[in-house]
Each structure stands twice: as C-alpha cells, then as structure tokens.
Amino acid sequence: MFKNSFLFGFLFLILMECNPGLYAQDTTPVKLQFENPEVLLQFDKDANSKIALSDTHYHFGKKSLQWVFKKSSYLQTHNFKILSEAESPLAYGDYFPNSPTVVLSIYNEQIQAGSLRISYGDQANQEEVWFDIPLNFTGWRTVWVPFYEMQGNAPQPNTQINFTSFKIQAIDVVEGRVFLDDLVFSQYQDDRYAYPDFLVPFIKKNFAPERDHWMPSLAYYDNILKLPVKSLSQSRQAELDTIEARLQARLKSADTLDDKLAYVTQVYQELALVEGETIKGRPITFRNSETYFDETPKYDEDYIEVHRFGQIMSQLAQIYSVSDAVTQAKIADYFTTATRYFLDQGWQAGASGGTRHHIGYSLEDIAVAFFIMRKPLEEAQLLNEVGASMQWVFNLGKILADEKDFVANIDYFNTQSFYHLMIIYMRTDPEQIAALLEHYSKYMSITLAQDDAHGVFKVDGTSWHHGGHYPAYGMGAFKNLPKVFRTLAGTYFQIGTAGHKNFKKALLTTRLYSNTYDFGFANAGRHPLEDNSIKFLQPQFLDMVFSGNPEHTAKVDADFGSAYLRLWGNEDAKNKEVLTNHYNLKPEQLPGYHTLPYAATAIHRRNTWAAILKGYSKYVWASEIYIASNRYGRYPANGTIQLLSEKGEEQSGYSQLGWDWNRYPGATIINLPLDNLESDLSLLMFKSNQTFAGAVQQDDNGIFAMILDESTGSNADGQRGAYGFSGKLKAHKSVFSFGEKLICIGSDISSVDANHDVETVLFQNNLEYATQQPFSKYTGTLDKSPIDTHWETTKQSDWLIDAFGNAYHILSDNSVHLKQGHQQSYHNKYSINTGKMNPKGNGVKETEGDYAVAWINHGKAPQQANYQYVIYPFISKERIKSIQTGAFKDVSFKIKRADTQAHIVYDKISQSTGYAIYDTSLYLKEELLQKVSLPSLILIKEVDKKTRQINIVQPDLNFYNKTGDYTNGLSHPLPLKFNLKGKWNIVNKTKEVSIKYSKMNTIVGVNSTHGKTYDYIFVKN
C-alpha cells in the first residue's frame, strides 16, 4: 500500500515531547491519506464534528475520511509539512513560474446548502488566508488552489509560505456529511495549470481564456447554456442527419470477433468496478506525476488514467456497433454503468480536477465512445449529462466567443476540432445541435483562414506551433482536420473558402518538404531522426480529394488528386482508377525549388531526390530542446543540408543509432563532447540576433543563405530572454542550387573556443543501407574499417563520394577529415548530465552504429576561415566512375566572389547570377547590379540581350509593426531598394514595386514582406 501511516498515539506524543527533533522529519505529514485509524488523531475538532474512516467512498487507497458536521463545525491541525519548491514534483523544476498550492479531494453524496472554508493561519489559529468550496455538487471533486489566489493576506506568486495551522470549517450549513481524501497541505505547482471550475471560480478570474485554449472557461460554458436556437427546416434537418451518418460511418469498426459477449465482458472487467449503493473503483486520474505522493501509486492498480479508461470504453463502443441485439443490450448495461462511474469520479461538467491541461490527447477515445453510444446513453437518461461533461472539458464554448477572440491553435486542430464535431451531437435537442454546428463552422472557417500573428498556417504553407514551423505538431492537425472537411462537405455547414484554401496550402506544403514521405531532421523540433513522415496521411489526402475545392465548385480537388496519385496511386488501385479515368487526373511532377521563409528553409528537388536546407534567425528558432528530448540538438539548423532519396531518411543514411549529434551534414559547428553539447537549460529554442536567413527562388533554382551567429540571441521558450553560447561561433553561409548541383560557400567563420575544433560537416552516413563504399581522391575506395585520416586540399582537385552516391568537390584549400567505423552515442531522449530519460526512449540510453563521416576542419578558434565545395546528389554509376578516374570536369559555374560582403555565383546553364549580399555599405561593381539598400538574396537571369528576370528576397521577416510592437509570427513590410546600371522598365509591375531613374541608373523599390520572392521581368530602354 502506497499510503503512509501516521502514528500519533499517546506514547508517541510523549516521546516527541521529550525530544521534539528526534522524529519530526519522519512523522510530519506532507499529505494525508486516510487508511489507518491513527490518522484520525491528526485533527482537533469541535464537539459537533464526527470523523471516521470509511470505505463508502474513497479516492486513492480503499478508505477516506468521513466527516459529519453541523453549523460552524471544524477540523484543525498544526502538524503538517509544507513542501519547498525543490521538494515538489515539478516536471520542469523551477523553469516555469510555480507557487505553493493546496490539493484536496472531496466527495459529496448530495447537493447541500452552504460551503466548506479551507484556511491557513498561525500557531494561535488566527486565519491568514482562506477560500470557500460550495457544496452544490455530487461525486468526487479535486481542487488545486494556489495560495496567491486565496482571500485574506494572500502571498505573492512564487513565494514560500510558512503557515502553521490548517482548518476546514462548515459555513452556513445546518448539518451535512462529506468524504475527504488525498490532502496535500502545500506543494509547489506550475502556475499555468491550476484551473478554475464551478467550485473554485476565482482561480484565474481575470485570465483571458483565449490565452490558454486547454483551460475550460466558465464564461464559454455559460454561452452554451444561453445559446439561442431557431426552428429547423426539413432541408437543414436532413443535413444534420447526413453529417451524423457520415460521422457514424467513419467510426464504425470492422466485425472480426466471433464471441463478442465474452470479449466485452473481459474488457469491462478490467475496470474492476464494485456496484452497490454507489459504483466504486480506482480513481480515474489525469497526470498523477504533478501531485505529491509519499509512495508512487502503481499504474492500473492504484488508479486508472482517463486515457486508459477511454480505451476500454472505446472497445466496448466499437464492438457494440457491430453486435446483435442481445449483445448490444449487455454492452449497453456495461457502458452505462461505467459512464456513471466516470461521472461520479469527478468528470462532470464544471469540474477541472485541479488541472486537466492538454486534455485532448487523453480524451480522444472516450469522446468517440460516447458518440457511438448516444442511443444507449439517451435511453439511460445520461446523454445530456455526458454531453455537458464533454462540452466542458473540451471547452466547446470557445466556438461561441467573440470573433475578435478567435485564435488558431494546432493543438486544438489536432485534439479537439474533430471531437468538437462529435460532441455537438451529444444532446437530444436538434435545434441546439444546428445552432452549435453553425457556430462551429464559423469558428473553424475563421481560424483556419488566419495566417497572421493569430494563425498557425502561415502564408508560405508552414505550420506553426511553439512559435515556429513544427511539422510534428502539424501532423496531428493534418490527421484530424481532413475528417472535418469531408464530413461537412457539400452542406450548409462546410468550411468557408478562405479557411479551406489556407489549410489546403499547408497540407500540400508537407509534400514539398518531404521526400517521398520523410521530412527529415531539419524541422523535426524535439524529435530528430524519429520516423518523421507524412506516409500515414494517405486517408487524409484522400479526404481532401473528395472534400471538393475551396471555392465549392467541384466535388474533387484536382491538386490533392494529382498529389495523391504521385504519393499513393501505385498502392491504391481503386482510387487510382477513379481519379484517373473518371476525373482525368495524372500524378503530379514535383521538381523545382521551394522556399519556406517562416521556417528559414529551402528545398531543392530534382529527379527523385530532395535537398533540405535549414537555418535560423532572430525570428525562427533553431530547434526545440526539452528536458528529456533532443538533449543534444544544438546544430540541426546551422546551415544544414540533408540529402534525401525517394527511399526516405533512414535509407538515405540517417539514423539515431550511433549518430554523432555534432555532425549534421552541411552544418558549421564547434565539435564538443556530448556532455558539453547537451544544453544547460531544461528548455531551449535558440534564436540568434541575426535577421539574415532565407532563400530566393527563380524558376527551378534558388539560393539559401544565413548569417550563423551563436554569440548572442534569445530563448523562445521557457525562460525567455537573452541567451548565447560561450564559443561565439559565427559564419556567413550560402548554398546556390542550380540544376543538379549545390554550390556551398562559407566565409567569415570564427569562434573564441580555444579548446575545440570548428568544423563544417560534409556528410555523416549510417551504413546500414549504404549503396556503395565511400571514396576520396586521397584514400581511394574505403574498403576497410576502421579508418580515420585527413589531408590538405589544393588546386580544386579533391573529390569525395559518400556511401549513397553523393559526390563532394572541394574547391577551397582546407583540411579534410574522413573516417569510417563504429560510433557510439546517446539517445536524444536521455540526458547525460541529469540522468533523466523520456519514456518514449524505451529505456535506451546509449546507441551505436557503423558510419562514414567527412568534414572540413577549420581548427580551434579560427578567424576568417572559409570553405567552398559543390555537392552532386545521388549521381549515376557512370558519373561516379568518371569522378574516380578524373574524367569529370564541371565548367558550368563560376564563383565570382566569396567574402564578408557577398557570395556571388554565375551559372552558365541557366544564364543566372546569384547574389547573397550580407553587407550593403559598398557598391557591388557588378555589370548590372550596383547596390542594394538591405541585405538581400538576388537571382538575375539573362533572358536575352535586352531582357532580365530578377528575383529578389529581403530575408528579414521583421516581426515588428510600425509602432515597434513585436508580433510573433507576422512579418511586416520593409522598404528595399536596388540600383541597376542603365535604364530599365518593368514588364510585370505590381503594387509592391516602384521605379525611378537617376542619371543612367534605374532605382527599384520593393515593399518586401514575409521573406517571399519577388519576380520581375526588366526590359532595357
């Protein structure tokens, strides 16, 4: 048994009086749990109070404290311990603001008049702080009340308390009875997560509910109760029935069981319910780890998590949907009994259980189960009560808020949006269903259309969460939102055009930054090398195909149809035939160059491969490092270049097993021991103070560039504020993508770390799926292992070919290192320095694998170091042979400049000159481009003698508006000017561009925003 026994008998009291310091540490309770009679001696009480241990109701354990009281009755104690911040079970330690909080569970058998007052005071029993709990509820309730939210002399948040008396008193009652359990006198709790409910509405009273979409809002719930309704037409009722039928059909399970009754009986018995005057069982809990226990309760033995409970209920519901009448009757009996238990355990409307944040992740299954079982619940007169419970905990009332308060959130789209649609149907009044559906459609249409600071799907197709592009969270939204689109398609309640169009862009963008399905490490957030893929989105793409186009003029979306045929057509003959023969669609072709300014990412695609280029800036974070995830994730955005074949990440040579977290390909880094590489913060999302990171596109080619600067910046999560790395690594980096080559340039590379080498990584290949043996001009073919060698390159004659047929031509004079052998590393979800392990790491701390790795070594604390090399991804066997024999010569490009001011490259094939301009203080003295007013990325293509195509990007996203206010996630215009030699006219002038002439020069102005490419055709006068 995990509960403490509190021995306060007469003999013990005498021993304590003789030597009060002898046993104080062992006997002063932090938490009271009522399993043994001795604990009754803990309290002083008035003459009208009667207390006893009872198994009539209990929370944790098998007993609780039954208190029978009358007017002004009280229980009081001085014997308790207050936990310090360091002693409290805080998931992130002191990283987030946290404060002393009381935790208490109460059971009320029937609604009573009056309330209970919880108070704390001094040794003389003088009350200092207090709060009241009304007795107008039934069942279990758990409350968390921070001391700073109490009445009286409330302390400030995050302030240690030193109260010495605790009292619970009956206020304005004649007589009554309650059951108390699991009293934590004071522990620190994360200030974000003490939630209000009907019993403690004063918590976060002035907190705007849109600031925390998880937090149930009393005002929002009240909106549901006051929702005006109107009578339904037959056509509208028919649409309600259509939507309901679509939902029901989507949730129906396959009929695969023979003896369904025996199976469901076994499933139901897992709940271990005891039926009597009440239904008793283990507490249905949410995140026990956030509450103090003397001994950790055993999973599925001492409690049942609500997620686990939901899985059981979902099993019952799924089998009900495919059973005969006799079996359905029995399942209905099981299900309604379990539902009464669920409600009695404190999951009624208006109960927050202390906290239930991120609840959508835990309640998905139970929401589905309740929807499927609407009819049995209605027959048991439980449907409206269950519906109210779900409407409260899923915060459905937010759809009824003022439109000005609508704020998009990926967590909502993932874990609540589809379930809101089901919850709307958990009621018996069709007029109310129709009214809620109308508001739901409006809410979804508006929030999906948002691409400003409130939006999560940005103008470039990126999916924002935690203040940045985060596909891992986007995938959750992409998993559930298409169900909403298809369910509502073609009805009065369908998603509006703007929302449909914006979501379409975001979902289709996933296929641009993935190859074929994998989106790699660059934008993996805190999940590097962890099967980051869009492959599971096949049903979702199909849903969007048959949701129609955003304009609602076609039943099939041709863009999604063509994308579907490319991605999954060969494994879905049925839909391939429909889309090909009935709708005349063909698989899309997807070469080209694509930019994601809000992610500081570019994708260069040719044939069946993709190169993903990644940086970061003042506005785009580098990666997400969590307390037990991505612990060594400092470098995945340091100008990285990930080469992905059509076979995906793992079969392109990327694996967590043995991965050296220093050496992401393309990155310029300080090579550190992993215990030094690990972040010193629990949470870190590093942003530099540099605004230059982005890409420009011209036709199928482009330039990516960034100013890498680790010296100063900020942390976008947790402890927001100034942050930097002691090595003060800096570099100007660019990648010019022309055709089937990537020209990589680095200049101004520096560091102050005199103990560790600065490197630019060429490749790191896990060899499990290698397609060939690595090769270099210096070593020849690497046909043995281990090998670790280095050499100095000269005369642009040095070549390397990695284990997957990617060739690297070193053009600069550098020290090149190459090694092949066995590597050992640590799992990204294990911390060397704290020993913490994320359960998702499955206990794997150390990893290993066989690798081939190559890098350019710039030495310790370099100043003005540089590199130049060209990558030829996934070349043919013939090209490999010609490189090895020295026959291959590439004269298709010329690096014209690579210094502090600019990197400039000319490509003969496309007749384009690319410019990455970092310093605008000097004239460029180019043939055409003379000067720019802001750091820029420019491609100028000679169409003919008198015509130039100019593509230009000013990569500063500029999240500051005209008044200087910071608007995270929303770019504001910056005026960019560039001077051209001679007089030129713009053929395709837009509202963003202006032109004037000065002597023999043309001055072009562009109102640049969103880091997007502006594409203009100039003709010479």
Automatic annotation (TrEMBL):
Domain Lyase N-terminal: from-to ranges: 32-202
InterPro entries: Chondroitin_ABC_lyase (IPR039174), Chondroitin_lyas (IPR008929), Gal_mutarotase_sf_dom (IPR011013), Galactose-bd-like_sf (IPR008979), GH-type_carb-bd (IPR014718), Lyase_8-like_C (IPR011071), Lyase_8_central_dom (IPR003159), Lyase_catalyt (IPR015177)
Matches recorded under Pfam families: Lyase_8, Lyase_catalyt, Lyase_N
Domain (Lyase catalytic) ranges: 231-571
Organism name: Leeuwenhoekiella marinoflava
Keywords assigned: Calcium, Lyase, Signal
Signal peptide stretch: 1-24
Cofactor: Ca(2+)
The protein, known as: Lyase family enzyme
